[in-house]
Design goal:
Elements: E1 2-4, E2 11-15, E3 20-26, H1 31-40, H2 42-50, E4 63-66, E5 69-75, E6 85-87, E7 90-93, H3 100-127, E8 133-137, E9 144-146, E10 151-155, H4 163-175, H5 184-193, H6 198-212
Parallel strand pairs: 1-3, 5-7, 8-10
Antiparallel strand pairs: 2-3, 4-5, 6-7, 9-10
The structure holds zinc ion.
Zinc ion binds at residues 172, 176, 182.
Length: 222
């Protein structure tokens, strides 16, 4: 349950990352009312939870898409204790099995940081703008953001998308450094950086929820 001062009426939201339903209630409502509200929508709640993409934890043998290419996680205790190394369709991770998921994620975050920063720098150069700082987050639903002060923020999960999708999101946020809106002028700037925006945007709409389930350890159905 989340109380919201901005909400005008009760609403239900799906949180794919946690596999939970959130009840948003305007302030002043009693919890019992929120519970009754959820009770009236049990069918909807059950259908939405059942429709969530499966959880894909980072375990030995699991498949992980990296830049759109399927990789298999291989636990190799002899492989040393560094981060997961990606090679020939495998992410090979050493060390103890209880650290495997974290190492895989940390390795992917490091690769995401490199991929995102490299493209951001290139695009900033093309548009002649300055990036103040780049932050990686584990956001739900927002793949990137840009502040008026030149601070860009991205979801580390973009490393799990096809390269054209990751590149588009970077182009989108860097273009905001020229136009902090979604006007036709903004889209003209985006088009200077990437040839196509529609396909990557459609991809994210279609697969976004599944991305939030990768490496996630929350599963109400388990
Ligand atoms: Zn935008």
């Amino acid at each position: 349950m989340r109380e919201s001062t901005r909400a005008r009426r009760m609403a239900l939201r799906v949180d794919p990352a946690r596999g939970q339903i959130q009840i948003v209630m305007p302030s002043g409502f009693a919890e019992t009312e929120a519970i009754r509200f959820a009770g009236r929508h049990l069918g909807w709640i059950q259908a939405r939870l059942a429709a969530l993409p499966p959880v894909q934890p980072f375990v030995d043998g699991a498949r992980v898409p990296v830049l759109g290419i399927d990789h298999v996680i291989r636990h190799d205790p002899a492989a040393g204790r560094g981060l997961g190394h990606r090679r020939n369709g495998e992410i090979r991770v050493g060390g103890r099995v209880e650290h495997l998921a974290r190492r895989v994620r940390d390795g992917l975050v490091a690769e995401a940081r490199q991929c995102l920063s490299e493209r951001a720098a290139r695009f900033a150069n093309t548009l002649n703008v300055r990036i103040q700082r780049i932050t990686l987050r584990d956001t739900r639903g927002r793949w990137g953001s840009c502040s008026a002060t030149g601070h860009l923020s991205f979801s580390w999960r973009l490393i799990l998308t096809p390269e054209s999708v990751l590149t588009y999101v970077v182009a989108h946020e860097v273009a905001h450094l020229r136009e902090l809106n979604h006007s036709p002028r903004f889209w003209t700037e985006v088009a200077r950086l990437v040839p196509d925006s529609d396909t990557p945007r459609a991809w994210l709409r279609r697969h976004g929820a599944a991305l939030l389930r990768i490496g996630s350890s929350f599963d109400p159905k388990a």
